[in-house]
Structures are given as C-alpha cells and as structure tokens.
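Before our next group meeting I need something from you. Please put the record directly below this note.
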Amino acid sequence: MCQIIGYFANFDFSKMLKRMKRLILIMVAMLSVGMLRGQTWFDAGLKGGIGTSMMYNKQIFDNQEIVHKFKPAYAFGAKLGFNFIQEHQITFDVMMSQFSQAFTYRPESWSATTDAVREFTISGMDLLLMYRTNRNGTYFEIGPQWSSYSSVKYTDEGGDFISPAAPADMVNSSNFGITAGFGGYILGTDNFGIATGLRFNYMITDMASASGKDKNFPVFTMRDSNPTHNLSVMFVLEINYDFGYLVSPSCGTRGKLFVF
C-alpha cells in the first residue's frame, strides 16, 4: 500500500494535466461527431456512494509519527448524461460529499495508556465531468473532479495545534483531482436502469492552505511542510432514466445483466 501511495506522490502531475486537457478535447470532438450522426439521447439519474478515504502525507509514512485510522466517507447527488455513438457517454455529476480522516499519535508528555486521536471531517460539493464507455452491461469511466469544501471540523485529544486559526483555515477551499471507476448495469428496462460499481479518486492539488502549510498540516510538528493529497474509494449505486431520444432507443440502449 505504501509503495502504491509513494508512486502517486512522485508522479509527474504536469504530464497528467496535459493528458486530461487532451481527454477533454477528445470528449468535445466525440460529442460533435455524435451530434452530427444524430444517434444521441440523454439520461438523468440519482446516485450515492459509501466508502473510505485517506489523507496521504509523505512525512506520516516516512517517520511513522502519526498513524492513519480509516474512517467512512460518503457522497450523494445527481447525474446528467449525454449518450452518443452507441457505447460512449459524457456525464456531469453534482455530488454532496463528506469524508473524515483520523490519526493516532503520542504527544510529548502524553501519559495515557492509549494514543491520542486527531480527526478532521470535511464536507463539500464535488463536480465531475466523466467520459464513460458502456459495453455488454458494464461500464468504465474517467475524468476530472473539482471539489469545493464548505465545512471543516477538527478534534484533537492531544491538544489544540491550530488556534487562533479556525479549522477551515488549514484547508484550501477547493481542490482538483482525477476520478476513475467501473461497474455494471444490474437490472432495468429499455430506458430505466440501476447500476453499481466502484469509484477511485485522487486529489492532485495540495489540501493544505497557506496557513496549513505554515503549521505543517496535518502533522503539526516543526518541520517543512509536505503536500497532502486525499485518496478515496467508494461503492456507488446509480439509478438512471433515459430520455430525449433523437433516434430509436434500440440504436443506443445499454446492455443490462437483467432486463425486464
């Protein structure tokens, strides 16, 4: 696990951003072709997910001063999709999300038998522009994610390391990342379906604000700050309804494992 996280930490994200820009251009080109061919339709849906997340900071893994404690994360929201060229789709998701990260550690002069617990809980809104391919009742999706954080809560049994700043001052108000997922359409009719799958997210930009970097968030020791990136994995349930066909639904309907 640490080797995988270390790989992402040393990854050249400038190249990734260039590739993501290229992916968006490809999405626009495919969208244009689909509209010209006329094999298009829309779908709308509700979706929700539950899973876990982790704030990765190199200092924590290198020095083992603070140990991650996995906590639940969830998201719920809506999706609007544009389907074209039969098996290809662009979706726009608006999700309300919340994730927590707890750490256990032993502060100086800590006399308790159990370690102190530090925890952050962050809530906000996620906007995702995803390219999705649907084939034989399964799908794969990938695209950029922009997250805006509206609430940051902080508790620490080992002491208050952020005052007089507020918890929200430690974290940037928005963050940018990349999301990928896969799954399958488990049941439905020609224009209604239920899908389940997994979604993986990696936030590319540093979570720490200028104030957070000054205090070495989330380590809070007197060292140079390392960037903090949030990773998450979620089980997702999605309910879709197709509408706005410009051709017969049979030209572009997605396969499902069970069809009524």
User: Anything to note?
Assistant: Helices lie at 2-9, 13-37, 58-63, 210-214. DSSP finds four helices and nine strands in the chain.
